[in-house]
Amino acid sequence: MSRMPDSLRTVYIAEMTAARHTDDDTARWHHLERAHILSQPYPWPHTRNHLAMLGLALRQRDRREAMGQVIRILVAAPGSAIGRYPEGNTGRTAAGLMTPMPIPADLASLLTRPA
Fold this sequence. Notes:
This protein has helices spanning about 5-20, 25-40, 45-60, 65-80, 105-110. The longest helix has 20 residues, at about 65-80. By secondary structure, it is mainly α.
């Protein structure tokens, strides 16, 4: 298992912090989804992201999303550790557990930059 490079960690933390500090749930999901894309290869940040998503789903009383997040919490760390995760996936239940998705250009440049 590799450690998240500092350049990614800085952006990941900024996205997670922005999610915590906004009062708008749509913006909160947006920041959590971006953090998810960055965290997928790293077991602890990936799991931490899904825990934050579960917290938001519970706050919104969204049972479907909450159940989807519980499943994702269980598979996040093992999937990251063995490199089995769908690149670009936003981490939401509607996205599908193993559905790859396009990576936003600004995040893609971070993910392809040497550590």
